[in-house]
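User: quick one
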Amino acid sequence: MSVLHIVNKSPYDRNSLDACLRLAQPDSAILLIEDGVYAAIPKASASERVQQALNNHQIYALQPDLQARGINPDNLIDGISLVDYDGFVKLTTDYDKSQSWL
Amino acid sequence: MKFGILVNEGPYTHQASDSAYHFTAAALRAGHEIVRVFFYHDGVNNGTRLSVPPQDDRNVSERWSALAEEHDVELILCVAAAQRRGLLDEDEAKRAGKNADNMAPGFQISGLGQLIDAGIQADRTVVFGD
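Assistant: Done. Structure below.
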C-alpha cells in the first residue's frame, strides 16, 4: 500500500517531518507544501535528514509555495522534485492514499 | 477519480483553506469528481458570507461559492462546529432564536456522517489543516 505523505510545517517549527520520516515505508513518497517547503533548503540543520530520506523516498516540493516564500527552486537539496497543483493532484492519484501530517 | 476534501482550518489563518481551494480547482481541471468538501473545526469559518477582506486580497468564501456554483461541488459545514462558531443558515438561525444568518451561497450545514460518507464514496480523501 503506497502512501503519499503530505507535510505542511517547517522542520524548524514542528517535528511533523521527523515523525513522518521515522514512520514512512520505503515505497511511500513525501510532498512538502506550505511551510513544509522550508525542508527543501540545502545546507541547513535539517538538510542532512532530508538528504538521507531521499535514499528511500521520492520527495516533492510544491513550486508555488516555494515561490511564495522566495525560495529559489534551482537551489534545493539535490534530488527533490518540483510539482505544481496539477502535479499535486496527479501524485494523490499515483499513490494509494494520502496522509497529511497535521 | 472521486475526491473527498477535508478542511480543518479557517480562512486567513495559515494556508490550509488556500491550499484546499487550489487543490480542489486543480482536481476539477483534470476532470476528477469532487464528492464533497467537508469543513470541520475552525474550517467552518470558510462558509460565512459576511467576511469583507480588503479589495486587493482574495475573498476565500466567495471563491468557494463560485467553485460550488460553477462545478456543482457540495460544500458542507459540520453542524456542531458551525453552531459553536456562529455559522448559521436560515433554518439554524430560526431554531436557535437568532435574528440573522450568515451562510455563504453554495454552503450547507450537515452532520459528521457526511464526512464518513465522503470517505467511503471517494477514491482519495485529502486533508488540509493546521
